[in-house]
Input
Amino acid sequence: MTVVTAEPAVSTDPTASTDSAASTETRAAREVYRDVLVELLGRDERHVCLDSDTGLFSATAWGDAAPRYLNLGIAEQNLMGVAAGLARSGRVPFVNTMATFAATRALEAVKLDIAWNNLPVRIVATHGGLSAGHLGSTHHALEDLGVMRMLPNMTVLVPADGPATETLVRSCAELPGPVYLRLGRGATPDLAPGAEPVRIGLAQRLRRGTDVTLIATGPHPVLTAVGTAEELARTGIDVAVLNMHTVKPLDREAIVEAATRTRGIVTVEEHWAAGGLGSAVAEVVADLGVACPVRRVAVADRFAAGTGGHRHLLARNGISGAAVTEHVRRLLA
Amino acid sequence: MSDDHARTARELVVRMCANPEGGHLGGSMSMVEILVTLYRDVLRIDPKRPQAPDRDILLLSKGHGAIGLYAVLAERGFFPEELLAGYGTPDSVFTAHPNPAVPGVEMPTGSLGHGLPLGVGFALAARLDGRDRRCFVVLGDGELQEGSVWEAAMAAGAQGLDRLVAIVDRNGLQISGDTEETMGLEPLGDRWRSFGWTVLDVDGHDPDQLRSALSRVPHTPGRPTVLLARTVKGRGLPYIEGQARSHYVRLTERGHRRARAAVLRGERPRTETT
Output
């Protein structure tokens, strides 16, 4: 990451990101999501917003849709079951909680009540990855992508910026089955304008290259991949970058192309190395039977405890341009 | 409902327990009158149109009682009784926990503590839709040890879901033995009341009491209702009634004959009353 941040002097909002000074021109994905959802509920009678005391929503913001905003308190297992009952009755619930509570605390209800019945529930999970920062390991979600992509019927989406969040929220509203949408916490810069819009199931090509392919998911990993690719280009190394905003269903064709046309793949994600995007990519490569090395930039097999904000924890846990560069150089050595 | 319906359902349950896989006998027998009363006298359902949009919803949260549900659904005409011979055989739709591929089964359940949250969702949807639909959730008493039950109880109370009805099959036993010795539930009525529910106490083997209580739903405007239905685990088989070992049973051919004879005699052992 090359973005320099300044910590705000005072923050009275405990959920406000201390990293948000990075980009005054952008908004947190969860705020983008909130505004799109208010609009969607106003337009479509089927949509229901289920809240779990996230503090993200104001009950007064819904206008005529207010009866379809239900804050069911701090009870995530019940939340998922209620969503399934609503969806089975023809509603399209948007369920709101933090990523780690959706993926672990409420997992059985997600698996049995929602995924098994293939119901159109949209689980919108904030505080993905290490974005909860100094809130600590109780609030870090480093297992959610692995857990959710294992579940049959589940679509797993990770927008990397505000515009992609808006596009994916709007497009997932039309999917017939369940969706897990992982958002971060603070604001991150938008990706370069002019990039093609994201489409569910298709990797977004951010950079063409012939030496190695970087495949990243989530705001900081994608920004890290793009920034590192630009630095490597200045040293004559030509690296492709894919934004894999859809972790499931995975864009196998894009991976096949990466595996056959470049000399290796480096994945970048805010997730434990086991089970996430890197594992998913490695599975595809293994299924192909091609000789393509896959290196994973991810959090090692440990709890990322310790103080510090989101960016600090990313750096401490090796989600960095230096790590990507090291892998690329080894692949080309 | 006449005793014939309950007797037929019990016959079907013991027949399924004579399958090589066996079955959850005790908890299926204890709720026979509850389910028969619901399906015969209370639920607005049509066996020929199990997915009719205006139907009432029945969720068997104590999903291990699947064979009891299958038996009552067959007896009520959702599918031919002969199909139950497939229970426990490879590739049968009749799994040991409710399979939604079986006509009349609303949702897959059986991991305990899921039914009431689902019921809250159905009830909220009905309210949003302006439907008069009622949702009934049958819970085991041991199941009440699951925390998600009380999350849902709190939600239903807070939302004032007066067309949601929980029915607790209060047979007092779980696998380990007495619920009160395993992890006590009493004072059970007070617990539900404290979550904003109206509590009705009934003999769960008395169709008249069940019918009378269930015909008064919604009982209290703005409050969900729970029936604490006092039952006997393994009801209908005097030699195993009220015993924890009735929980899961594989009947031999001889055991099946004996059980069937007992069910057909229709003995009515006393139900403990308080």
